[in-house]
Give the backbone structure.
Amino acid sequence: MTNWLYNLHIGWMALFIFTATYCVAAVVYWIVTRLAVDDRARAFKALSPGMLPPLGIIFGLLVSFIAVQIWSDFDRAKVAVSSEASALRSIVLLAANFAPEEEMQLRALVARHIEKCVNEEWPAMGEQRATLTMLPTPLIETMQRVLTHTPANDAQRTARREIVTSLRNALDARRQRIIVSQSNVGSVKWAGLLLQALVTLIAIAMVHSDNRLTCAIAMTLFSTAIALSVFLIASYNRPFTGEISVGPELLQQVISREVKAAPDH
């Protein structure tokens, strides 16, 4: 699977995958029915229909195996973004315990971090270019500012400690989403799944080669199952790529609701 396919609109992706699957099935049908003559026809018919259920079960197991991975990665991506947004919101709220000037500087740093995430990190994660070498400079500056700040009272000391904890949580959540953005169904898994689907289609065509209508119906039904499985896997394969992906909306809400709001003193 290539990047252009993952970035297609979900409707166009479905159209491409279903069309490609039906075309492959049609080619298999045409080849098998053309070869099913004389001795080859008798050989094809001699294949036991009992081999079809095991082939279908193996295909289903492969789909399940891959689906567990992609949906687990997708959930991890959502949790990472949610955790990062929660940690950043806590920083903004706790900053209200400091002097107005210090509070505004902390809010501005959080805003810079979120804007960098939206404008730089999200496109990079979508193309799987994001790595841990990309430093979260605004969060690092925030950590340095908070650690060098001298608390004036117990409330500020408590806020300082909690902000440091929230910063660590935000940094860890950011690391997790960058790591998850690299997740992908490998080429070996794709090859295994598609090869198993092709083998099953060929077996169906051979078993029903003496009845072309039955053969066409059976292959169409199984091709639909193949296309649907591939479509679902491709849609969720990369957590930060394509129309069905984890976006930065939660992080942007921190800016719109907290950072951009003028502090009331």
Remarks:
- Residues 80-182+246-265 form one domain.
